[in-house]
Please model this.
Amino acid sequence: KYYELLNDEKTVNSILEEFNLDARFSHIINGHVPVEQKKGESPIKCGGKLMVIDGGFSKAYQGKTGIAGYTLVYNSHGMRLVAHEPFKSTEDAILKETDVYSDSKIVESSTFRLRVADTDTGYEIREAICQLEELLKAYQEGTIVEKE
Model:
């Protein structure tokens, strides 16, 4: 039943709302679920609100998935999913000078670069700075004095 619900946008929106997240800007990242890319299945579900990663990194799943899994990359420019081709062997890589090939797909681009100041951590840092400035002002005005 769970795997069927991964494709139900109403359920995904409900989960996001349960965590007090805005469904327009939030995502659920689901790992360790094989994505059968070779059958056309997409790791991006429910209009980009849910992404399945790591589906197929294990050799046991590569025959089913056709790939060696996904990696989610997120930075201030946006979010992308990277699909990895299966790695044959160290010997093959050395003898044939091959590498692991990956295909990157942009999932979401940021209209502006997200900075630390734009996050919850940024808010906490600003609050701490304000408290320290108030403490410094109180010390400079003599409201609080240094203990000996």
Notes: Residues 2-112 form one domain.
